[in-house]
Amino acid sequence: MKIVDIRKCKFTEIDIQDDPEKVIKKLGKPLEIVNTSEIKGNFASLFSDCRFWEAHEVLEEKWKINNNEMERKYLQALILICASMIKYLKGQKEISDKLLNQALSLISELPEDVLPFFYVRFCLNS
Question: What SUPFAM superfamilies does its record include (predicted)?
Answer without folding.
Answer: TTHA0068-like (SSF140663)
